[in-house]
Amino acid sequence: MDKAAADDTDVPALSLRNVTKTFGELRAVDGVDLTVPAGSFYGLVGPNGAGKTTTLSIIAGLLRSDAGTVEINGVDAARQSRVAKKMIGVLPDRLRTFDRLTGRQLLSYYGALRGLPAPVVESRAADLARAFDLVDALGRPVSDYSAGMTKKVMLAGAMIHSPRLLVLDEPFEAVDPVSSAVILDILRAYVDHGGTVILSSHGMELVERVCSRVAVIVSGQVLAEGTIDEVRGESTLEQRFLELSGGLGDVEGLEWLHTFSA
Ligand SMILES: Nc1ncnc2c1ncn2[C@@H]1O[C@H](COP(=O)(O)OP(=O)(O)OP(=O)(O)O)[C@@H](O)[C@H]1O
């Protein structure tokens, strides 16, 4: 691995160049360029179907792009995928995991996959369970968890090997306000200590509050990118988002909905 690159703070934590992914005729990701500085909290926003999950899946190595390059701390993710993958922790979009395992077993599994010694995994799992308020749930199968609990245990799993970059697809969706505040505190401290977070979210207010930079992606293309102030300009991020994504949908033609037939 290019260790010098990974240790150099001028090297972006993540860099995408002309990344493209098509599904049949659909260009889900259409020539995306992104530069995420090390130590930043980066938001990816966009309407449903904009290509956020597809982009994050490519970054995470869960999906192969058709064209373009992804570099994690200067390491080419296609050429040196093992090195690149070691540096990232991933919270995937759909919460598909080995849910017959208990929370404790799942965290042990994540830790073992990352090559951590068993005692380290055990103590980190205990720390994470305390932080995420999952101590009482650790002995239960993950299939019995609520959506928010599942998200939290998977987020804990994404962090267990202390990666340099966290790739989080909608980490706050279905998570209660107290847990959201705890997760935010953990992520902020992680970023303050040099870690990098890229997350997708539909929560404009949250992105505005916590992210240092944001990219607005619409129909697979980055339409705006920069610091929060640069992107929102004189308006709010939500107003800017609505403008960029083509405004509100057409609500005419639904008058029948107000006739209450039964
Ligand atoms: N495996 C797939 N096969 C075919 N089309 C796909 C596949 N995955 C995604 N798509 C399509 O690619 C486009 C982008 O989807 P993606 O899930 O990346 O959007 P998103 O921005 O994450 O949306 P949301 O906010 O609703 O989660 C959508 O039109 C979607 O239908």
Automatic annotation (TrEMBL):
Residues 14-244 form the ABC transporter domain. GO terms for molecular function: ATP binding. SMART domains: AAA (SM00382). It is a peripheral membrane protein. Its main location: membrane. Keywords: Antibiotic resistance, ATP-binding, Nucleotide-binding, Transport. PROSITE patterns: ABC_TRANSPORTER_2. Pfam families: ABC_tran. InterPro entries: AAA+_ATPase, ABC_transporter-like_ATP-bd, ABC_transporter_ATP-binding, P-loop_NTPase. It is found in: Cell membrane. This is ABC transporter ATP-binding protein. The lineage of its organism: Bacteria, Bacillati, Actinomycetota, Actinomycetes, Micrococcales.
